[in-house]
């Protein structure tokens, strides 16, 4: 099984919160873990926010960022997904960056792993499999 990992799930895994430990078990059983390359910016921003607003040390924030990115085996260029992502965003009235993950899951017939309940619901509505 191929998994598309989104930023929310990646951060939950490395921050050891929510369903993070369950997600890690599922990743271990997967054939491949992929993500749009925009995940780098999204996870970097999430780690910066934890540092800035929650008191996470700089070194811990950097370590979480590094660990999150190490979970991914293949970074798919956003340029390959943007047309479908924008179409999905327009139809769903959701942020386009969320739809890159859905577009990739649909394109590669992969399972989307997300901690975002609204994204999960929309991905299922679009016909994607979701954890």
**Relative helix content:** 55-70%
| Structural domain count | 1
Overall structural class, as computed from helix and strand content, comes to alpha/beta
CATH domain class name: Alpha Beta
- Report low-confidence residues grouped into runs of 5 or more: none
Strand content: 5-15%
Count of alpha and pi helical runs: 7
Number of strand segments: 5
Shape: globular
* CATH homologous superfamily classification: 5'-nuclease
Sketch the topology as an H/E string, one letter per element: EHHEHHEHHEHE
The major pleated sheet works out as: 5 strands, parallel
Give the overall average pLDDT.
95
Q: Distance N terminus to C terminus? A: 12 Å
How are strands sequenced across the largest beta sheet? 3-2-1-4-5
Over the alpha carbons, how many angstroms does the gyration radius reach?
14 Å
CATH architecture annotation: 3-Layer(aba) Sandwich
Give an overview in words.
- A 5-stranded parallel beta sheet has the order 3-2-1-4-5.
- 61% of the residues lie in helices and 13% in strands.
- α7 links the parallel β4 and β5.
- The protein has a single domain, classed as Rossmann fold (3-Layer(aba) Sandwich), CATH 3.40.50.1010.
- The model has no long low-confidence stretch (mean pLDDT 95).
- With 131 residues, it is an alpha/beta fold.
- It has 7 helices and 5 strands; from the N terminus they run βααβααβααβαβ.
- α1 crosses α3, α1 packs across α4 and α3 runs antiparallel to α4.
